[in-house]
Amino acid sequence: MPILLVIKYTNGRVKVTVYPMAQLFPVKEELSALSLGSIDVATTPNVFLARTFPALNILEIPFVFDNNAHRDRWFRAVHDKLNKMYAEKGIKYLSDSLTGIAWYGIWNNKRPITKMEDWKGLKMRAGGMQKSALEAWGASGILIPPEELPTALQQGMVDGGIHTPYLVADTPLYPYLKYGSSRGRDIFNGCAPFLMSMKTWERLPQDIQRIIETKVSKEVEGRMGQWASKKNSQVYSKLEEKGLKLKWFEPGEVEKMMKAYKPILDKQMDQWGPLANEFWNIVQKTR
Length: 287
Known about the structure:
Blueprint lengths: L1 H8 L20 H7 L4 E2 L3 H7 L15 H10 L1 H9 L3 E5 L9 E4 L14 E3 L2 H9 L3 E3 L6 H6 L5 E4 L1 H6 L8 E3 L12 E4 H6 L2 H36 L3 E3 L5 H20 L1 H12 L2
Parallel strand pairs: 4-5, 4-6, 7-9
Antiparallel strand pairs: 1-8, 2-8, 3-6
């Protein structure tokens, strides 16, 4: 969507060729390609960004935001810090307007998860920080490629996983799942910011730069919010029609889970550096 709006608002002055599904570079190499100017624009998932920018691991913390409004306040508050962080690597940060499209909920075929004790003994598809959090709560985290999930669920290799509702609804997963997270509730957030190579940015005329910063980025933010709201409603309705039972945690259970996770989080924060601590403090201030 950002690229189409660039074409629209520049009246075709900017010519764009889109290469979807990481055709030019593997996703894990996109940041390096942006820095070098080998590609002009990318929307790279946060899990890969955090390998270069450890402070972005903040966005992988479970229950980091209370709701979408809290998430949006945080991004506005840290915009200048993000802009500086990316610029040091030769990347122009334009917008985190794609943030929140990937809401990660809990999906499994054993039981509703409404309290921390419900995690015990579950084998869940998860990796990275998701895995460490689930293990702190009593589950096992197992990393399995998405294409192998239907077979893994069918054969009992895993009981479920941390997935977006879109993955569950739009792939052959839901026949093997019975329980999921309630509408609009997420345990982990997803993020894929609108990034441009600084070399490309500096070649653009100033009026084109202004158009991208003021018109394109703002419209993408608005449209993505509308699209996500509509898409969420459709997806959850589809899942409920398929018989999935959607539940959320009982009062006090999220706090109990975060208390169990805190020793791991404290250790991780030390590893992520001072900027991560700044970001985390702003998470608290913007609640």
